[in-house]
Amino acid sequence: MRLIIAECSVDYAGRLSAHLPRAKRLLVMKADGSVLVHSDSGSYKPLNWMNPPCVVSFVDPTDDQVSIGVQAVWRVQQVKTDDVLMISIFEVLSEFEHELGEDPGLIKDGVEKHLQELLADQLHLVEEGASLIRREYFTAIGPVDILLRDAAGGVVAIELKRRGDIDGVEQLTRYLELLNRDPLLAPVRGIFAAQEIKPQARKLAEDRGIECLVLDYDSMRGIEDSVPRLF
Q1: 72 burial class (0-12, 13-18, 19+ CB within 10 angstroms)?
Q2: Are strands 17-29 and 35-38 parallel, antiparallel or unpaired?
Q3: Which residues of the chain carry a pLDDT beneath 70?
Q4: Backbone phi and psi for residue 175, each to the nearest 5 degrees, phi listed first
């Protein structure tokens, strides 16, 4: 893990274009190859990022860049797509690097983990004809609980919670933004599944085109005969 606090500007080119003007930011380079650009606001969400696999190269600034104070330029190229992140460094204020080693991953709440196992075995509750791609599908920002193909062959990402609130919808939104950058998966739609979904979370999910699935834990375990509802 390499952490760099630098005064920089950032330009992203891909399916969309974006520009971050000159400012002090935190640049994160992870061992998995991902690069993230953070500010001192926005909570845990980066301003921009490049998910692995990607290649980072260091290029000389142009004469015009040198004239405005650019000392170095990072070119971050996504291997599977044409997406490019150009980071222009004006000044490095602090730099730190440390090997974190292998991470054991998130240990989920017992009920939440069991819900994931049960739903992976009962995908007909999501849609008849759905097939499992993988549980705990890895991304650069964490594992998607369930990734599946629907009956039409489309990819669906499911985020599972015991109690569904706005944070869970935000988490799924970030996963969808990342997954939809992968041309081998896109388009990916999302389903937010929980035993109980708060009204504010449901409203936010609906506004973002995310479906909500209410799960009956007892029924899924065979204790009661009540059918989860897909809204």
Answers
A1: middle
A2: antiparallel
A3: 104-110, 224-231
A4: -60, -45
